[in-house]
Amino acid sequence: MASPNDLGDGGASGQINAELRHAQLEILSAQVATDRLRLRYSAEDLARHAQRDILRKAWSSANALFEYYNAIVNQMPDRHALEKSTAMTIDEAKILDTSDRMARYLYEQRGHFRLIGQPLEKSQQDAMAPFFSSQLLALARIVLLDRQRIPKPPLDSEAKAMGIADLSDFPHPSSATFGDVLVFYEEITSRHLFHALVHAVQLEVLGLEAYAERFVRGFLRTRTHASVPLEVHAAVLEKAFAEQEPPFLVEEKVRLWLNQGRY
Which helix (DSSP H) or strand (DSSP E) does residue 223 occupy? Predict the structure, then answer.
């Protein structure tokens, strides 16, 4: 172990931080591997089926790392400032993790419902043609549920603790959009179809991951589903459609809001 005299200033400090950075990257790799494990299996699954000696070693290593770095932090004069910034980082990590879970959920539900989805009828395509691309209308699939409910997004206790316990209610009261798959709970009116297709365009323009992240962040900021900017814009365009305003291209409206930073 190096003494304070050995460390000195300048170069030694740089070496310490270089080695610390390398250790941090190695720890991050272990965290990523653990996150993959956590996404696939519950704590109960691991407790029941994990090989005991492997689990013990993993626990021992994680605990030793915590004790070592915690001892360092306890000796820092600006410990509270570090803890505050770390807490912010943890919150951000939770948001990104929740966004990833939401994206995965949207992807999985699309795959499930597309298998039973039906193409838009010609009358529906004709009614939507002035507002949406012919490619989207051709690819879109519709599912009308009969006394069924869409599974809730898989949100864990950490996400709920952040104030997003109501995120499971995210689908629109009349429909839910999973990419180009539109799932309805009730009669498919032109207005309901239009609203669902707006979300399909948002997903197409933003991409799955960005759409999920904007939804989660919007919900955390506004605390209500109806106030999430993605939902607000869909409602605004739906109202314009219902009031029979001159036809407009929804994709252009979506890109405008995106460029203006309104999502």
Answer: none
Q: How far apart are CA 162 and CA 77, in angstroms?
A: 30
User: pLDDT tens-digit profile of 203-221?
Assistant: 999 999 999 999 988 887 8
Give the dihedral of Cα atoms 231, 233, 236, 241; nearest 10 deg.
Answer: -100
Residue 4, phi then psi, degrees to nearest 5:
-55, -35
Q: With 0-12 CB in 10 A as exposed, 13-18 as middle and 19+ as buried, what is 235?
A: middle
From CA 131, how far away is CA 127, in angstroms rounded? 9
State residue 23's pLDDT score: 84
DSSP, residue by residue, 53-89? HHHHHHHHHHHHHHHHHHHHHHT-TTHHHHHHHHHHH
Q: In the prediction, which pLDDT does 254 show?
A: 97
- Tell me the HSE value of 37 on the side-chain side, using a 13 A CA sphere: 14
Residue spans per domain, the chain: 10-80, 94-259
User: Which amino acid is residue 235, in one-letter code?
Assistant: A
3-state secondary structure of 252: helix
- Structure-token pair, residue 11: 């170069």
pLDDT tens digits, one per residue of 52-98? 999 889 888 888 888 888 888 888 877 666 666 665 565 788 788 88
When pLDDT is averaged across residues 194-210 and rounded to a whole number, the result is 96
